[in-house]
Specification:
Helix content: 25-40%
Pfam family, one: TpcC
Organism: Listeria fleischmannii
Shape: flat
Number of strands: 11
Distance between the termini: 119 Å
Keywords: Membrane, Transmembrane, Transmembrane helix
Radius of gyration: 44 Å
Protein name: Conjugal transfer protein
CATH architecture of the largest domain: Roll
Low-confidence stretches: 71-79
Largest sheet: 6 strands, antiparallel
Strand content: 25-35%
Number of domains: 2
InterPro entries: TcpC (IPR024735), TcpC_C (IPR035628)
Amino acid sequence: MEKQKEKTSLWRALKRIWDREGERQKEKKQRKASRVPGQRAKYLGKVGFWLLIATTVLAAFISFQQARITATQIPQQKKQGINQALTPQASEFGRSFLQAYYTFDATDEGIKTHETKLAPYLVKGLDSHAGLDVSSVQGSSHVTQVTLKDSEAKGQQKAYITYHVEGNILRKWTEEKVVEVKQGAKKVKKKQKQTKQEDKKFSQDLVVPVEYANGHFSVYDLPQFTVYQQQATGEAYQINPKYKAYNGSTREIQEFLETFFKSYAEDDADKLAYLVAPTITIQGLNGSLKYKEVKETDIRVGNENEILVWATVTFTSPETGLVTSTHYQLTLQKGKKEKRYLVQEWNRR
């Protein structure tokens, strides 16, 4: 009897679940039937819109990452193609090395200090004093000036950099001198040690072998003595023959040049700016020199009919009276409103 009741209860429960699910399906069909036409299309449109936004953002992010990688790679590639041992940084490194190289005190402690100061400059295995025998001089040394003279490539990242070094060596030594000393009523000659010193200037041309590796400069070999001889190898500037000679009247141009260079030498920035086009800025001499004359001019016509002037101008120093001539190149054009000449370009060769 109890088993029959349990079966009846189970059947009723299953029937309720079945009826409830049937009602849900019926309601679902009714909602579909009552849905406004085009709502499904609108839903799909929203989904497509957000997919498009997501795709665009992803593409932009990928492009940004690629551009950033390219931006970091290009300078590295350019940097690898340059001999870093010929850069100004390498020249400054060599200058700093020579300052430490020729600065020492020939005492036990001074010799150790010299070795310590040179260590950051030298490659492993090189003499710790870079070939300099500090103990050979009784005294001290210091550098007054190091001047760069030349640099020559010696490999992909190596160079010989030539400097002229000037300094002072203070030499100290001991001499024995016979002197008379009193011993009671008598004078006796005795030898006494006396310390003497001499401050002597020195100058030397040296070649410093500089190498760039792993992001650092180093001296890869011992400095070499040399005698540097300055020799000019270039030629004086020549005006490009493509610029034809100016055939018009030059009187107005000559007058403008005199006015301009006098203002350039002696006037303040505001007065000078009146003679210069607003597209450029020229720093004048602010009275440090006095204008004397425009000695020579070569006036030609540019590709756009602008007036090109090459001038040799002479100035006088108010302090010393020394007269100096120098070259200038100007591009002149008349202003549209003022109808007067203005300097459009300055010292471009």
